[in-house]
Amino acid sequence: MTVPIQCTPDETFVLNLGPQHPATHGVLRVKLTMDGEYVVKAEPVLGYIHRMHEKMAESGTFAQFMPNTPRMDYLSALSYNQGYVMAVERAAGIEVPERAEYIRTITVELNRISSHLLWFGAFVLDLGGFTPLLYAFDDREKILDLLERITGSRLTYCYYRFGGVYNDIDDEFIAGTREFIKRLRSRLPSMYHDLVTGNIILIKRLRDIGFVTQETCRKYGATGPVLRGSGVQYDVRKNEPYSVYPELDFDIPCYPEGDSMARYMVRMDEITQSLRIIEQALDKLPEGPVNAKVPKVLKPGAGDCYCAVEAARGTFGCRLVCDGGKNPYRLKLRSPTFSNLSLFGEVAEGMILADALAFMGSLDLVIPCIDR
Amino acid sequence: MSDYWSDVINGTRSLVIGMNITVRELFKPVITEQYPHFVPVMTPRFRGHIELIGNEETGLPNCVVCGMCQRACPSSCITVAGEKPEGSKKKVLTKYILDFTKCSLCGSCVESCNFNAIKFSHDYNLASTRKEDYIFDLVKRLEEQS
Question: Which of A23, A132, A199, B50 is the most exposed place for a label (fewest CB within 10 A)?
Fold first, then answer.
């Protein structure tokens, strides 16, 4: 339990966490005002990896911004790719063939699993367990191999195009994906749940630590597993369905406790649900073209549109303003990690430092996604 | 007190389960690739840096110096130059420089090409400490390949 503490300012000291620190997984700096082992005030300092993505979008054509999208969140690159592509498609009124939508769903869910697997490994590593990381990477490697075969890269995929996908998937990919689903399903109960979820050390470190209430989530705009771990059943895939999600049967895992354990469980259940989605999408995969006819130089009419997708860390939104030219007039990118990090300062107050780091791990921060 | 004993029992159980799984994995085959001894094979769609495609008959580049790749590149890392020999209607490629220090391997150039003139190479061992090693003269590279 976190206990509120009282002390006078002259008894505190400042601890600089980061910008290079193994527990922050990137160049995030947190200025911690400490009273002994207790955090009195936590203040995240951002901007170490700011790359002006939004400005870069304005200075290039619509297609030229495409390689930037996976660089924002390198772990669930395809979700970001999809969010941007969907926004431009909405602005230009492009219809995407059904097969392409199914391929997008399959690949994006594979990417979500790989992102959660990496989070699982890194999170348990933060808590001091090294072995599960290697098991998670073993499974993640299979996904990377599958996606490399079709997209051509292993991490910063740029696979979607306006009106479709880069190229079609083949039978070997489909067979490999089915084999992977079987493999992960057989490994999840023993390698993940028995070894880690049921482990007493993990339970003691996570249960009743780092309470995030629904009110806090609303205040800071937290989404994704952080919000669902606080008992709000909100997922863009269900609440504002896009792509082919309405045709697929899946549940939104939701835990009302709001502690770190709840967020952990949400992500672990999401892996199972993503496997379900991929399996159904593979069964329903229609034949047909994977690309719509799109002019080489896109010039959407003047207007304003917004498109949101559910990335592995929460809602990724793209607001695109066009003035009828070859370049976007303005592109606003709403990244989930920024909102999820914002509540860290408030919730971490009064925690022991080690718990605050465990709590930070449970938020699943990806730093390039915060700064953009 | 009962909490203490339930912790001890649960802790022992976690330990036994954990050791059981890790010992079982210990005797499974090694899954990591022993990199310098075994070299990975790149998949056909692997996106390496670009290289020119030569004509099957003549061996000369397919490139017609239209400059589409140069315009499509978001980081402007391609420089193309050509000249029209006397009596010829088509331009001939004289220079194709790829500045790989700026390239993000997005493949926009390959997609924009209408003449089947560039493709992705499968090179990935490109580490170097000198900048000059990343300025690729693709015309020279094609000559060396043929």
Answer: A23
3-state secondary structure of A309: strand
Inspect the interface and report whether the beta carbons of A149 and B45 lie closer than 8 Å.
yes
Specify if B86 maps to a domain: yes
**Residue in B with minimal Cα distance to A67:** B106
* CB contact (8 A) between residue B21 and residue A195: yes
Residues of chain B contacting residue A194, judged by C-beta atoms under 8 Å apart: 17, 21
Query: Is B117 contained in some domain?
Result: yes
Q: Are B141 and B72 found together in one domain?
A: yes
pLDDT at A2: 66
In tens, the pLDDT along B88-139 reads 777 888 888 888 888 888 888 888 888 888 888 888 888 889 888 888 888 8
Residue B77 lies in a domain: yes
Q: Is B123 found in the same domain as B58?
A: yes
Set of chain B residues whose Cβ sits within 8 Å of the Cβ of A131: 18, 22
C-alpha distance from B80 to closest chain A C-alpha (Å): 19
A152, A195, A296 ranked by CB distance to B47: nearest: A152
Q: Is residue B39 part of a domain?
A: no
Looking at the fold, whether B64 and B128 belong to one and the same domain comes out as yes
Burial class, A221, CB count within 10 angstroms (exposed 0-12 / middle 13-18 / buried 19+): middle
Per-residue pLDDT band for A175 (boundaries 50, 70, 90) equals very high
> Do residue B65 and residue B26 come from a single domain?
no
Q: Say if residue B21 is in the same domain as residue B76.
A: no
CB contact under 8 A, A153 and B72: no
B7 touches chain A (CB under 8 A): yes
Count of structural domains, chain B: 2
In this structure, are B8 and B67 located in the same domain? Answer: no
Round the average pLDDT of chain A to a whole number and report it: 87
Q: What is the ipTM of this complex?
A: 0.82
Residue B21 belongs to domain spanning: 1-31
* CA–CA gap between residue A159 and residue A167 (Å, rounded): 8
Using a CB cutoff of 8 Å and minimum separation of 24, what contacts does B95-98 make? B95/B137, B95/B139, B96/B52, B96/B61, B96/B63, B96/B137, B96/B138, B96/B139, B97/B135, B97/B136, B97/B137, B97/B138, B98/B49, B98/B50, B98/B135, B98/B136, B98/B138
pLDDT tens digits along A198-248: 888 888 888 888 888 899 988 998 998 999 989 888 888 888 888 888 988
CATH number for the domain including B88? 3.30.70.3270
* Window A:43-62, CB contacts with B under 8 Å: 60
**Each residue's pLDDT tens digit, A47-89:** 888 888 888 888 888 888 888 888 888 888 899 999 999 999 9
Q: How far apart are CA A53 and CA A51, in angstroms?
A: 6
Q: Which domains does chain A have, with CATH numbers?
A: 9-371 (1.10.645.10)
pLDDT band, residue A163 (cuts 50/70/90):
confident
Comparing alpha-carbon positions, the chain B residue that sits nearest to A187 is B21
